[in-house]
Specification:
The protein has 439 residues and is an alpha/beta fold. It has helices at residues 3-10, 14-18, 37-48, 64-67, 88-98, 115-123, 150-154, 202-212, 227-235, 251-258, 283-289, 300-303, 306-309, 346-355, 409-419, 422-434; strands at 26-29, 56-59, 80-83, 106-107, 127-132, 140-142, 159-164, 176-178, 184-187, 220-223, 243-249, 274-279, 295-297, 315-320, 323-325, 330-331, 334-335, 338-339, 360-364, 368-369, 374-375, 377-378, 394-397, 400-403. This is Acetyl-CoA hydrolase/transferase family protein.
Length: 439
């Protein structure tokens, strides 16, 4: 059969495609932008009609509108939902279920670079559904915005069902799947979900300026999402020869590429390429990465592996946390007694950046939360340890920065209290004495 004939033979409706999924299936979905709305809605309809018994669905950062059908309250308990990283939609669903009798969404704690092995070797995902680009002349679909765990699961022998969307950018890199490996495909031309930039304030800009002063020309960047990373990018516009090797490609990083600040000329690994494992942002970002040979998507087990990250010199990693205790341990995923986000790739890059020659791993946060009522630097964490105190390197708040490496517990406590909000420093000193960290 010709490539076109193979494509046509596998094309069907969403209902027909999800009818191929057996009872008891373990279904993994594409991450974020690649979450396939038509296929997920068809799965929800099938479950609601009394089909697809005892199935589980594994998701990571699904868009709220696209995920709403499968998270409908009437399906709670009828299909098991497992979150690899909680976002707003999961938090909202958990909140609704706390008010009723539904089960909370289950959570699988896992470092991002381990998710491919987790899904294939341990979970045993037997079905993978995701959004892909249009097929090229060689019969390949690009995974577009999301190489992450998608490539490993797609190539694991799992039943591969794709939602072809012309709006999905055709991205270069190690992110291609061939039509011959697809069990079924549907077509659905809808706009991709967009994530607007969060508004920045003076605190964000102060933190961004502190971090930007630490960045050398020729450094290699990893940035998370949010106002603080955006502020860092804005403050880097005067730098030169920066590189990008990042888990997430954001509009802030793209702005540095467009301005010529990033040229990837100093990178030892993937020189000349801005490397990412997933992208999320506005339409301008999606347009920029479409058929752009200067950017490349690679699987997360490559991009986020600490020993891979460390192959570039002067890696600078910026991530956020919810809480940090006086020893430097971070809780970046649990708040108010509930799962708030997830482990994600924070520890991957904390370790990879520090292992890089001249590298710096930065944990950045506002000194307070809840409009100044709560200190983010605390005596004890309220949740799990996302980044251990032994791994934390540099901590930044709007009051300055502190290097944890080479410091004793007493020295760490003093350094962190010095960059805490002034309203909480006396209480933190008292707590440090109660814990016998300070005399």
């Amino acid at each position: 059969m010709t490539i076109k004939a193979t494509y046509d033979a596998k094309r069907m409706t969403a209902d027909q495609a999800v009818a191929l999924i057996p009872d008891g299936a373990k279904i993994a979905t594409g991450l974020a932008v690649s979450f396939p709305p038509a296929l997920v809605a068809a799965i929800a309809d099938r479950v609601r009609a009394g089909g697809l018994h005892d199935a589980s669905i594994y998701t990571m950062l699904p868009p709220a509108t696209s995920a709403a059908p499968i998270l409908s309250p009437d399906l709670a308990g009828r299909i098991r939902h497992v979150s690899l990283f909680h976002g707003g939609i999961e938090r909202a669903a958990d909140g609704a279920r706390l008010d009723g009798d539904g089960l909370l969404i289950d959570v699988l704690p896992v470092q991002f670079h381990q998710i491919p092995r987790m899904l294939t070797d341990h979970v045993g995902a037997d079905t993978f559904i995701t959004t892909v680009s249009n097929m090229d002349a060689n019969g390949c679909f690009s995974l577009g915005t999301d190489a992450d765990y998608a490539l490993a699961v797609a190539r694991s022998g799992a039943r591969l069902i794709v939602e072809v969307n012309p709006a999905m950018p055709y991205v270069h890199g190690d992110c291609m799947i061939h039509v011959s490996d697809v069990a079924a495909l549907i077509e659905n031309h809808v706009p991709l979900c967009q994530v607007p930039a969060l508004p920045r304030n003076a605190t964000d800009d102060a933190i961004g300026a502190i971090i930007a002063d630490m960045v050398e020309d020729g450094a290699c960047l990893q940035m998370g999402i949010g106002a603080v990373p955006d502020a860092v990018c804005a403050a880097l516009m005067g730098h030169k020869r920066l590189g990008i090797h990042t888990e997430l490609l954001t509009p802030g990083l793209v702005s540095l590429i467009r301005a010529g600040v990033v040229d990837n000329s100093a990178k030892a690994l993937h020189p000349g390429k801005s490397v990412f494992t997933f992208a999320m942002g506005d339409q301008s970002l999606y347009d920029f990465i479409h058929d752009n040979v200067a950017v490349a998507a690679h699987p997360v087990e490559h991009v986020n592996a600490p020993h891979i990250i460390a192959q570039n010199d002067r890696v600078l990693s910026v991530n956020a946390t919810i809480q940090m205790d006086l020893s430097g341990a971070c809780n970046s995923e649990y708040m108010n007694g509930r799962q708030y986000s997830g482990t994600g790739g924070q520890l991957d890059f904390v370790r990879g950046a520090y292992a890089s020659k001249g590298g710096r791993s930065i944990i950045a946060c506002h000194s307070t939360a809840a409009k100044g009522r709560i200190s983010r630097i605390v005596p004890w964490l309220d949740g799990p340890v996302t980044t251990p105190r032994t791994d934390t390197h540099i901590v930044v708040t709007e009051y300055g920065w502190a290097d944890m490496k080479g410091k004793s517990l007493a020295e760490r406590a003093r350094a962190l209290i010095a960059i805490a909000h002034p309203d909480f420093r006396e209480d933190l000193e008292r707590a440090a004495r109660d814990r016998r960290i300070l005399a």
